[in-house]
Design goal:
Blueprint lengths: L1 H9 L8 E9 L2 E8 L8 E7 L2 E6 L5 H10 L2 H8 L3 E5 L13 E6 L3 E15 L2 E14 L7 E17 L7 E19 L2 E24 L5
Antiparallel strand pairs: 1-4, 1-11, 2-3, 2-11, 3-6, 4-5, 6-7, 7-8, 8-9, 9-10, 10-11
Length: 227
Amino acid sequence: MKKILLVVLLTVLTAQQDYDVKVRIVLEPGYHNYMFHNLLTDNTHMYNIGFSQGISGRIYLDELDSDLRNKLINKAPKKLRKHLNNLGSISTSAKTFVKGYRLIPRDFSYSNNEDIQFLYLNWPIFTLGLGPIGFDLSGTGVYYDDKIFFENGKMRFRPSVGIEAGIHDLSLSKVFPLSFDITCSWRYLLPSIKFYEEVKFNTITTAPSLVINIKIPYTVNVPNSKL
């Protein structure tokens, strides 16, 4: 819903300058404490740090000209207009506009010691955020090498479902160039992966994670004739 409104806004730009719209280009580096449930032998869990990256465009609706805001909301389906009026901001990922960006994994975690070598990668395919709750369908890759029991490492790919809950865009002010997200997440892989006999691995969770939003202001011009 948020993505639809932002795409409508950003695709009506021409050289005519009727509205000045403040957009934030947001860089989103994140730090995560992962728990890979039942990954190791004897159904034991593996804990590892990881990182994430993201680039998005964000618009705060209360910064829009009131006439422009009303025109944009009126372009949405009638059933959505009431919900759009309650939104504080709208944003969309760079993969909406930048070809090839979706090939870069959003989430990654790596570990290598004398016992195991491990790599986790995650590529969101579809995402939806509604207030404090986020949902995604993703492609997930896991490489695992038990150097004691395996002759070679094993790479497995699975579709996955992710749910995230937390507080987003915490800041002193929306004009401040930094804000923070504090979230917890749960991911389920289907079907399960079996690196060992009788041991099924399918769940990944995070303790409270921290994402820093680095906001770069940018102004675009929206022509009234295109609305």
